[in-house]
Amino acid sequence: MAQHIVIVEDDAVTRKRLAASLRKQMYRVSEAENAGQMEEVIARDPADLLLVDINMEGKDGLTITREQRAASKVGIILLTSRDDQIDRIIGLEMGADDYVTKPFDRRELFARIKNLLARISELSEVRQKVEPVAQVGGWTLDHLRRRLVDESGTIEPLTRAEFELLHAFFRHPGVILSRDRLLDLIQHRQWDPDNRTIDVLVGRLRKKIETNPSNPDWIITVHGEGYLFAPPDI
Amino acid sequence: MAQHIVIVEDDAVTRKRLAASLRKQMYRVSEAENAGQMEEVIARDPADLLLVDINMEGKDGLTITREQRAASKVGIILLTSRDDQIDRIIGLEMGADDYVTKPFDRRELFARIKNLLARISELSEVRQKVEPVAQVGGWTLDHLRRRLVDESGTIEPLTRAEFELLHAFFRHPGVILSRDRLLDLIQHRQWDPDNRTIDVLVGRLRKKIETNPSNPDWIITVHGEGYLFAPPDI
DNA sequence: CATCCCTTTTTACATTCTTTTACAAGTTCG
DNA sequence: CGAACTTGTAAAAGAATGTAAAAAGGGATG
């Protein structure tokens, strides 16, 4: 799901303009005009990144930074005015990750946002130890290099779509999978009745793995329902 | 080899005058009029010492200090104006090694430079030994010298961009990285759909590290998504 | 400062991959 | 059996990638 950015800024014009352009970049954006609103928002939907104006009525940006940093590892970028160097430094010492000076350059701000979000998601990225290979029948699917190896070690290269589809089959042996489900498994895409992508891909996979593609042993057609991956050894 | 000093100063007069007199003292001197230029310079040829003006358009001296200090143990001397005591103090807190106030006395500055460089070179032997090299498969990526060494010890020189890209790959093995992300990792640059820089660089890297560049084992293309670094031993 | 050399980026075109289209062939069920 | 529907598949269209070569930078040198 899209990453969640919360803008905390009491000037409505700046806030809304910023929110609009961030939404255009496909971020999920919430707006708060003060610390209280922000807390409500993130209680409901935790933020990945806070964009906080340093000068606000009530609880200011530095206080927010200190409090949030103590509570979580959310990314924090401060919006400061150009001449407020001291605030900037203190902000960083309090745990903000970055700052931009107002009036800010859009592209610079966006670059910093993207950058920080990437760093953050890297940290939380639990390196899921994927099994490097899956063996079925005589075939070995090399997950790491996304290719297929036969018993003798010969490499059968797969395109991205072929690999994704075969991978989906390997994960669901002996189960009938609808075209809809398969399309979802390989690319999170919506299926519509005259989408023939899966059929074409099945045809190509059969050419690569079946002894006799027109009389398949591995990928079986189930008329009206979908396809069934039927490896010999399950 | 002579020690490398980088002057980061946007006033050309001050900068060039300083550079000239430092060159007379047999230092290797590079000039940068802003943070971007500085980064390019030290990417190509790491600095022993940065001389940074604290007041500059764009990224200022304090920011540079913070960033560089986080990345390395390079020596940093700040050039401050006489009345900016706060900046000086903050600068030192952020990790600058020393500062001089403008207008500065030549002999004083040179004394401080000599002093700091001496302290650094004392450390540098130790630092070189612990300087990390990354080993993956049969390759060793030498961070210090920015080059690649194979199992037999043969050196494969890399250009700056090639090194940065390979370094990014080394840091993210087994993960699909989009072109956007890669460009960000190697130079904090915005990606646009018809930027082919990454593709070209991947092509060049493949020529250097793949047995068969048109059938790569290490850097795998994932159509529509990006590239995947697949070392044999993760 | 002009010039050279090396690196990086852009451009242009060839190639490959994905999806769609079109029609042939197969299946179901009255 | 035959109409209605589903599947197989070649081939076209549309995108993305590979890559040589031109253009643009950038630093070094005289």
Question: Number of helical runs of chain A?
Answer: 8
Overall geometric form of chain A? elongated
The CATH architecture name of the largest domain in chain A reads 3-Layer(aba) Sandwich
Biggest interchain interface, per-side counts: A-B, 19 and 23 residues
Number of domains of chain A: 2
Strand order of the largest sheet of chain A: 2-1-3-4-5
**Class derived from helix and strand content of chain A:** alpha/beta
Uncertain residue ranges of chain A = none
Pfam families (chains A, B): Response_reg (PF00072), Trans_reg_C (PF00486)
Keywords (chains A, B): DNA-binding, Phosphoprotein
DNA-binding region (chains A, B): 131-231
InterPro entries (chains A, B): CheY-like_superfamily, OmpR/PhoB-type_DNA-bd, Sig_transdc_resp-reg_C-effctor, Sig_transdc_resp-reg_receiver, WalR-like, WH-like_DNA-bd_sf
What is the gist of this entry?
The structure is a homodimer of 234-residue chains. The first copy, chain A, is α/β, with parallel strands linked by helices and 234 residues long.
Report on this model:
The structure is a homodimer of 234-residue chains. With 234 residues, chain A is of the alpha/beta class. Chain A has 2 domains: 4-126, Rossmann fold, CATH 3.40.50.2300; 131-229, Arc Repressor Mutant, subunit A (Orthogonal Bundle). Helix content of chain A is 41%, strand content 22%. The first copy, chain A, is built from 8 helices and 12 strands. Chain A has helices at residues 12-24, 35-44, 61-71, 85-93, 106-124, 160-171, 179-187, 197-209; strands at 4-8, 28-32, 49-53, 75-81, 98-102, 133-136, 139-142, 147-149, 155-157, 176-177, 219-222, 226-229. Chain A has a 5-stranded parallel β-sheet, sandwiched between helices. In chain A, helix 3 links the parallel strand 3 and strand 4. In chain A, helix 6 packs across helix 7 and helix 6 crosses helix 8 (197-209). Chain A is elongated. The first copy, chain A, starts with a strand and ends in a 5-residue tail after the last strand. The model of chain A has no long low-confidence stretch (mean pLDDT 85). Chains A and B meet through helix 4 and helix 5 of A and helix 4 of B. The structure holds a DNA duplex (30 and 30 nucleotides). Chains A, B: This is Response regulator. Chains A, B: Residues 131-231 bind DNA. Chains A, B: Residues 4-117 form the Response regulatory domain. Chains A, B: Keywords: DNA-binding, Phosphoprotein. Chains A, B: The modification 4-aspartylphosphate is found at residue 53.
